[in-house]
6-carboxy-5,6,7,8-tetrahydropterin synthase
Amino acid sequence: MLSQIYPQAQHPYSFELNKDMHISAAHFIPRESAGACSRVHGHTYTVNITVAGDELDDSGFLVNFSVLKKLVHGNYDHTLLNDHEDFSQDDRYSLPTTEVVAKTIYDNVQAYLDTLENKPTCVQVFVRETPTSYCVYRPKKGGLNG
């Protein structure tokens, strides 16, 4: 994978890790206002997850990279996003737009991180839908662990 430069999230933590991955998935936005995006189409998404924290686990990890890949790539790669429960409601915060995909990945990753004793936090999720279009989701400061 080609090295990427991402917008950086400011945070007070000592450690920061980033996990890159690609997800090939289809979706559609069931709204007339979405234009061509209302038809089923696909992307090879580039996803970057930024996790930060002050404490390492017993293995010396902030979080195991392979777990992050399983949480995201394992769930969404080669699927129709609209078929996932995460994107099945007919409201603007459940439609599989790049914005909602980024927030949903954050929610799923943070839910896992909350189970870890060392309490790392997801500070940013970057989702690139096309070479020229991407979204960054960062939780509001009150949402960070700490």
